[in-house]
Amino acid sequence: MKFNVNTPEETMSYGKKIADYLKPKDVILLDGDLGAGKTTFTKGLAEGLGIKRNIKSPTFTIIREYQDGRLPLYHMDAYRLDDGSGDELGLEEYFNGDGINVIEWSNFIENELPSDYLKIIFKRDDSKGDNYRTIDFQPKGEHFNKVIKESYLEK
């Protein structure tokens, strides 16, 4: 399912929309070019979870934890991980934990991902404007198909 957005606020609104349908252990993969909207989407998701803290890109810290919402949010950036170093970070503990796992640049840890997840691909098209993006939701597994259906198709 694809959506086009023209502002960062629209990108955030999609993150906010799915927050009510997420549960502990959910894994959301965010892929796309630099500046395509991955962290902006996560800001909306955090808002939907009731997290008040400012959401920052985890680029240099690798994992940022936000505990003050309806569910904890674990925001990860796998860009700087080498093959296998995700295991050293204890990703499996996060995946089996009490919160929502959001992973930017998931292609760097493909072998360590669970079988069910929601992959979201962000594509920029600067020819249509500075903030024009296509957001492509690719659910894998029954739960995430239901999340997409209930949060988007029925509204």
In short:
With 155 residues, the chain is of the alpha/beta class.
Rg calculated over all Cα atoms: 14 Å
Largest sheet: number of strands, sense, barrel closure: 7 strands, mixed
Helix content: 25-40%
> Which parts are unreliable, with pLDDT below 50 for 5 consecutive residues or more?
none
Q: Provide the spatial order of strands within the biggest beta sheet.
A: 1-7-6-2-5-4-3
Total beta strand runs:
7
Order of helices and strands: EHEHEEHHEEEH
- Please tell me the overall pLDDT: 84
* Count of individual helical segments: 5
Structural class: alpha/beta
Oligomer: single chain
How would you portray this structure in words?
It is a single chain. The protein is an alpha/beta fold and 155 residues long. The chain is 28% helix and 26% strand. The chain has 5 helices and 7 strands, in the order E-H-E-H-E-E-H-H-E-E-E-H. The chain has helices at 8-19, 38-48, 85-88, 91-95, 142-153, and strands at residues 2-5, 27-32, 63-66, 73-77, 100-104, 117-124, 133-140. Strands 1-7-6-2-5-4-3 form a 7-stranded mixed sheet. Strand 3 and strand 4 form a beta hairpin. Helix 1 (8-19) packs across helix 2. The longest helix has 12 residues, at 8-19. The protein starts with a strand and ends with a helix.
